[in-house]
Structures are given as C-alpha cells and as structure tokens.
Amino acid sequence: MAIIVQKFGGTSVADAEKIRRAAERVIKAVKNGYQVVVVASARGKQTDELIADALELNPNPPKRELDQLLSTGEQQSVSLFAMALDAMGYDAISFTGGQIRMITDSDHTKARIKSVDAERIHKQLDKGRIVIVAGFQGIDENENITTLGRGGSDTTAVVLAAALGAEQCEIYTDVDGIHTTDPRIFKNAAKVEQISYDEMLELTSLGAGVIYTRAVECGKNYDVKIHVRSSTEEKKGTIITHEVPQMEGVVVSGATVQKDMAKIGLVGVDNVPGNAAKIFACLAKAKVVVNDIVQTEVSPEKANLSFMIGISDLAAAKKAVEQIKDDIHCERIFVRDDIAEISVVGVGMRTHYGVADKMFSALAETKVNIDSITTSEIRISCIVSKDQAEQALEAVCVAFELDKPAEERAKKD
Ligand code: ADP
Ligand code: ASP
Ligand code: MG
Questions:
Q1: Which CATH code for domain 3-174?
Q2: Ligand 1 in contact with 195 (CB < 6 A)?
Q3: Which end of the chain offers a freer environment for a tag, N or C, measured as fewer CB atoms within 10 Å?
C-alpha cells in the first residue's frame, strides 16, 4: 500500500474547526487507498507565545529548556488531531519526536536530524492506523528534547517521507502553493506550477518562508516529491521536483526579500595569508552561519572583508570578530542591521542575458540605492535599506512581470 505524508502548518490546525477540516483531508487520502502519516505543527501562533512566556522569565533562556517548552506546542496538536480522527470513526495514534526515535544532534533550537525509527511507524500503519507525528522536534543521544529551527515541521515531514518511502510529501498551508514572491507583500504574485529543488533552495534561503530550507534540501537529497498546497481549497498546488528542460526557459522564477539579517564589515585587515581563515574559524566556533562573503584588496597591505548573517546571530558574531580584531590588525568593525536583501532567482539565468540590467534599472527608477550586490549562477541579490525593502521588491516584481504565469514569461529561444 502506498504511503503519503501530509503536513499541516500552524494556521491549518489553529482551532477545532481547522483540525476537523485537516482530518477530513487525511480521511480522503485513506479512502483513496493510502496509508497516511500526518505531521502537525503547533496551533496558530503558539510557538511565538511560548517564546514570549520564556522571555518574560529569562531574557536569555537556556536553549535546552526552551526546546523542552517549545516541543509542547506540537505535542498538543498531534493528540488533538488523533482525538478528532477518533471522533470521526478512524483509528489514529499520535507520537512525539522522541517516541519515534527522531534522533538529532544536540544543537538545541536548530538541531539536525540523524535518524528515525521508521519501523515503529510502519507497524502502526500496518495495523490500519493513521499515524500523527509531532513536527519540529526530536531527541538527542542523551534523550534531551531538541527542536529543528522555526518552520522545522516541514523538515520532519520530508524526512519521514524519505524514511518511509512515501509516494509524496504534501505540505498543507495557508496559501494555494508557491508564488513568484510572497503574496502578502506583492499581492499579484503568480502561482508557480512546478519549481526545481535548486531554485527553491535559493528562494527559501533568501527569505521565502513558505517552506523550510532544510526540508527542500532533504527532498532533493532523498528524492522526495514535495507538493505545497492549500489546506482550505482542493486544487493542485506547486510541485517541487528535479529540474526539467522547460524550466530553463523561465529566466526569473521568483523574487524574495529578507529583512532579518545584518552585515558585519571588517575594515583595514592585514592582507596576509591566514587572516580570512582566522576570522571564519572564530565565527564557526560561535556556530554562526555566514552568507555572501566579500573580500576586496584596498592596498598591497590591507583588505576589507564583509559578510551577512541572520540577525539572531548578530550578538554572537560581533563577539567573535571583536575577539580576533587585534590579532588580524583590523582598523574598524562596522555593523549594519538596517538593511534588507532583495533577490531574483531562476535557472534560466544561466543561459539568458540582461537580468542584472533589468533588476538594477528597476531599482534605479524607484530611487532605491544598492549598497552591495552578490550573485550565484541562478540568482542576483542586492542589499538595500530596510525602509525601502517593500517598494524595491515591488519594482523588481513588476520589471520581471512576476504577476504572470511562467508559461507566459518563458523565453522560447
Ligand atoms: P505554515 O504555518 O503552514 O507552515 P508559513 O507561514 O510557514 O505557513 O508559510 C506560509 C506563508 O509563506 C504564506 O502565508 C506566505 O505569506 C509566505 N510566503 C513567503 N514567500 C512565499 C512564496 N514565494 N509563495 C507563497 N507563500 C510565500
Ligand atoms: N511550530 C514551529 C514554528 O512555529 C515549527 C513549525 O511551525 O514548523 O516555527
Ligand atoms: Mg512554515
């Protein structure tokens, strides 16, 4: 019997009515002959509320205790979900991450999954039960509860789909699929029918919060077909899959804005072998994830180096570079937390010219200054001032006609 994993996000299980509606989706899949594994997130804004509770008592809560607390949100959802299915006449059993041996490393609040006991789930499915698993959580080798990072239930779902050999992983959410950009910011954003793992990895790591980056990464690595779709409407959503030749025709598949980031610059660092290694060794030790590193030689003796980080890592990153400052003879450290990054992404960029020109012209016409630019094979990103972020994104979306479906925008040459 084929297995399907269905993940319901916070808004899709926010209250009793929504849980019932989600349960109906599950029952439909059962009636279609599937063995169903459900992954549920905490209800509504519960994770935010639990974090606020923690911060009220301790502005810097121990991460182990934070994970212990946050995991309760998902634990409530799964038991309620199982109760709803029971009331509707279906046999269901809920599990926490620990109960299905979702083993992670010990990096609290951003743990990575190492393995899962798929057998325990198979046994329950074979008894004819619907299995409901708490997303976002696991346990480390010492039985401490861990969480996977905000949005991490998506990862739970994709990892389970891979481990169980599921036919596909459905991500039910409050939008009807992946759009060319966040429809909350650019309301005319077009829905995308299908998108490659690589484009989606770029989009999510650049701020498209519709699905968690690690989930897409696992989907790519373990060949899991991911279907992002609406929890309220029946229609097909967006399929995330391997690249197919037609995708090359679409020059820009999506645009993003990322506001929760900061930039650190090290001015006048000694231009000698080993300094960059020293700086990034310090940052790695502090577990800071670094993006978009730029180093330029300003004289034979001196270089400037800057990099981007998530704003939540700013304090740790600042501390790390201050420790190394004198050792590398850095003249000055500057920090900017008033910036946003606007990006366009598309596999078609590899083979089509004029993308940079179009993006920079759109920003210039909107009088948005570009602080710095970075590129990869399939993306262009510009750092702009945070207070101009929305207008910059809108200008870029209009320039690339991201309100039109991909078929209309595709280049035939
Ligand atoms: P869930 O609680 O179901 O996990 P999320 O809030 O994590 O839902 O993700 C859904 C939200 O992602 C949407 O409401 C939308 O505003 C946002 N979003 C950001 N970028 C995109 C995009 N490119 N396409 C669709 N939605 C996006
Ligand atoms: N409940 C967690 C969060 O709000 C995990 C998730 O929703 O995926 O981030
Ligand atoms: Mg989410």
A1: 3.40.1160.10
A2: no
A3: C
